[in-house]
Design brief:
- This protein is α+β, with helices and mostly antiparallel strands.
- The protein is about 35% helix and about 25% strand.
- Strands 5-9-8-7-6 form a five-stranded antiparallel sheet, sandwiched between helices. A four-stranded antiparallel sheet has the order 1-2-3-4.
- Helix 2 runs antiparallel to helix 3.
- The protein is globular and about 55 Å long.
């Protein structure tokens, strides 16, 4: 209902988020949408904007009831698309997302925010060495295949849908998006990578969630992971973001100690996604 009619959004996927059912009985449903106006603006700065193009919305339960939230596009786009010079656009899009969701649900828009708060787009390095710096430097092209991206991307998605999920994290395809000519996005997630991430972040920076059974469920819009395919002179380049950096984008409020204790997890997730994609392509 919230994705059609006056909203003008296109639903790309809807799936249940990974939750530790041994700890709680609450659930979350993640919706991935293409909001054409948002897509147009983020892609105006180049193909790297594809990593910010899909809008992810979570409808989740906790002890207080049912909530709807999303990652703040104002913060996300300032990191991914343009660190400076587009703040007015990012604010406009963030307010548009908030008001559209509220209007189509028939409720007032909440101004409450939680998670990691930053006063700039550039993400710093943890302990001065780990996973920080300009976003474009964190994009990894991990394989190249001959062909045209307009044929390769849909064929890749179809092949992935017929494959078994990744053995450790359950990596699987969730959506396919074409945000601009010559650019496609495949969304990859897994129940186990989600569940573990939400357990690690816990209540994050939100002390009001500290005593909840599964406080990290509010971080469910952090997934799926974006795999971006672009056309480059007769070949298709396949890229993703350094997974440790991506974890910092969405889960830095877990704290430095939590990151240090789980340093191997991002690399393991990244390797599983790469292997899944390569197995489907070759």
């Amino acid at each position: 209902m919230i994705l059609t009619g006056s909203a003008g959004w296109n639903l790309l996927a809807s799936y249940p988020a990974g939750v530790d059912t041994e700890k709680c009985s609450f659930q979350a449903q993640v919706l991935v949408v293409d909001w054409p106006e948002h897509t147009r603006v983020v892609m105006s700065q180049g193909p790297h904007g594809a990593f910010a193009a899909p809008i992810r919305i979570s409808v989740f339960e906790d002890e207080l009831g049912v909530h709807v939230n999303s990652v703040n596009p104002s913060s996300l786009n300032r990191t991914i698309v343009a660190e400076k010079g587009m703040d007015e656009e990012w604010t406009r899009l963030a307010e548009g997302l908030r008001s559209t969701l509220a209007r189509n649900m028939g409720v007032g828009a909440s101004q409450r925010e939680s998670g990691q708060f930053r006063d700039k787009g550039r993400i710093g390095r943890t302990f001065g060495i780990m996973a920080g710096g300009p976003f474009k430097e964190k994009i990894k092209t991990f394989t190249t295949v001959e062909g045209e991206v307009e044929q390769v991307a849909p064929a890749l998605f179809e092949t992935l849908q017929g494959m078994e999920p990744g053995p450790e994290w359950g990596a699987r395809p969730v959506y396919l998006m074409n945000p601009a000519e010559g650019v496609w996005v495949v969304g990859i997630t897994g129940e186990r990578m989600e569940r573990r991430s939400y357990d690690i972040v816990g209540n994050g920076s939100d002390k009001s969630r500290e005593d909840m059974a599964c406080p990290g469920i509010d971080h469910s819009p952090a997934y799926p992971v974006e795999v971006v395919l672009t056309q480059e002179e007769g070949a298709v380049q396949v890229a993703l973001i350094d997974e440790m950096f991506r974890m910092k984008m969405f889960f830095e409020d877990a704290g430095k100690v939590a990151f240090a204790k789980n340093m191997g997890m991002p690399g393991d997730i990244e390797d599983e996604i790469k292997e899944l994609i390569r197995s489907a392509l070759f």
